[in-house]
């Protein structure tokens, strides 16, 4: 089947994708490369909620048209345009698509929503192309070019992420004993600002002891007591984000005081991820936060 026929068949009815998000349950900044990128060491965990919704339909004209629930995100700066163009350039065919994007993953929250959307579209394009698509290594390379977090969403499995966050090592962890909660306060933290603030703090020689909590977990394959390991929750960005946004630090302390085993900022913020041993504690925190207009996702 030709590429044109493959996409015509795939879009004979609307295609709906629901890319989720990710949280960093720990994040260490190891240094800065000469090209300006930071050396990271982090544990990424995929989460199904919150998720965006991508609805794809056919367009008679080659290229990608985006219609978004947040209109200003539909412009050419959206990573989905770059994804469509880059993949089309590699395979030598430009499918005509209209993409309706419903944004539910908070922006500026450290949850990787844009990268998740890009990975979902990239994977769908390549799967639809079948034998005409890119091989695994070429697809992963293209994902790295699009953004540091995009390769992780192609894997969509807990991973240790190093380098820019694109050197991935799948890890065997099971957090099923805990009830997770993503907390998205109405605070926006620009990633570029967070890195700059960290650079300035590091250059000044300021060092802080990490604020951490420890969870006990098992591997997915082995539930025996001997397989227990400890997962330390920490984030180097907290040392610069919390002083600039003290309400986030107070929120973290409140969540822990109300029963969370651990709570940590995800990425450069401002979202927090918390883990609870008892579901009723999580629900109590959800009720408390919703009453204060703070978005929560379970």
TrEMBL record:
What are the record keywords, sorted? ATP-binding, Isoprene biosynthesis, Kinase, Membrane, Nucleotide-binding, Transferase, Transmembrane, Transmembrane helix
Reactions catalysed: 4-CDP-2-C-methyl-D-erythritol + ATP = 4-CDP-2-C-methyl-D-erythritol 2-phosphate + ADP + H(+)
User: Which amino acid positions bind ATP, per UniProt?
Assistant: 106-116
Q: This protein is called what?
A: 4-diphosphocytidyl-2-C-methyl-D-erythritol kinase
Report the source organism: Desulfoplanes formicivorans
Q: According to its UniProt record, which protein family does this protein belong to?
A: Belongs to the GHMP kinase family. IspE subfamily.
What broad class of enzyme is this? Answer: transferase
Indicate the residues that form the catalytic site: 22, 149
Any one GO MF term held by the record is: ATP binding
SUPFAM superfamilies registered for this protein in UniProt: GHMP Kinase, C-terminal domain, Ribosomal protein S5 domain 2-like
Which Gene Ontology terms describe the biological processes this protein takes part in?
Answer: isopentenyl diphosphate biosynthetic process, methylerythritol 4-phosphate pathway; terpenoid biosynthetic process
Q: In which pathway does it act?
A: Isoprenoid biosynthesis; isopentenyl diphosphate biosynthesis via DXP pathway; isopentenyl diphosphate from 1-deoxy-D-xylulose 5-phosphate: step 3/6
User: What role does this protein play?
Assistant: Catalyzes the phosphorylation of the position 2 hydroxy group of 4-diphosphocytidyl-2C-methyl-D-erythritol.
What the entry lists under InterPro entries is as follows: GHMP_kinase_C_dom, GHMP_kinase_C_sf, GHMP_kinase_N_dom, IspE, Ribosomal_Su5_D2-typ_SF, Ribsml_uS5_D2-typ_fold_subgr
The upper taxonomy is: Bacteria, Pseudomonadati, Thermodesulfobacteriota, Desulfovibrionia, Desulfovibrionales
GHMP kinase N-terminal domain: from which residue to which, for each copy? 91-155
Pfam families to which the protein is assigned, alphabetical: GHMP_kinases_C (PF08544), GHMP_kinases_N (PF00288)
Residue span(s) of domain GHMP kinase C-terminal: 234-291
> The organism sits in which domain of life?
Bacteria
E.C. number: 2.7.1.148
Which parts of the chain span the membrane according to its record? 253-276
Gene name linked to the record:
ispE
Identify the stretch annotated as signal peptide in this record.
none
């Amino acid at each position: 089947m030709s590429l044109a026929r493959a996409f015509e068949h795939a879009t004979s009815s609307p295609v709906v994708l629901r890319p989720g998000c990710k949280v960093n349950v720990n994040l260490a900044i190891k240094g800065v490369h000469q090209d300006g990128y930071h050396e990271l060491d982090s544990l990424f965990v995929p989460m199904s909620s919150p998720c965006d919704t991508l609805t794809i339909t056919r367009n008679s004209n080659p290229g990608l048209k985006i219609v978004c629930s947040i209109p200003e995100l539909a412009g050419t700066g959206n990573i989905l345009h770059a994804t469509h163009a880059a993949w089309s350039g590699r395979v030598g065919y430009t499918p005509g698509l209209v993409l309706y994007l419903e944004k539910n993953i908070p922006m500026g929250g450290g949850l990787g929503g844009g990268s998740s959307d890009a990975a979902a579209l990239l994977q769908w394009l390549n799967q639809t192309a079948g034998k005409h698509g890119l091989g695994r290594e070429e697809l992963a390379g293209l994902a790295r070019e699009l953004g540091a977090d995009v390769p992780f969403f192609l894997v969509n499995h807990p991973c240790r992420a190093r380098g820019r966050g694109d050197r991935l090592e799948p890890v065997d962890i099971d957090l099923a004993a805990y009830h997770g909660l993503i907390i998205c306060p109405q605070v926006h933290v620009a990633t570029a600002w967070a890195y700059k603030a960290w650079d300035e703090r590091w250059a000044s020689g300021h060092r802080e002891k990490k604020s951490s909590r420890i969870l006990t977990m098992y591997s997915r394959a082995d539930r025996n007591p001997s397989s227990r390991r400890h997962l330390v929750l920490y984030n180097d960005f907290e040392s610069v984000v919390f002083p600039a946004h003290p309400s986030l630090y107070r929120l973290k302390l409140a969540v822990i005081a109300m029963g969370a085993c651990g709570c940590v900022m995800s990425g450069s913020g401002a979202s927090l991820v918390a883990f609870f041993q008892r579901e009723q504690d999580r629900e109590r925190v959800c009720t408390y936060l919703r009453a204060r207009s703070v978005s929560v996702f379970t």
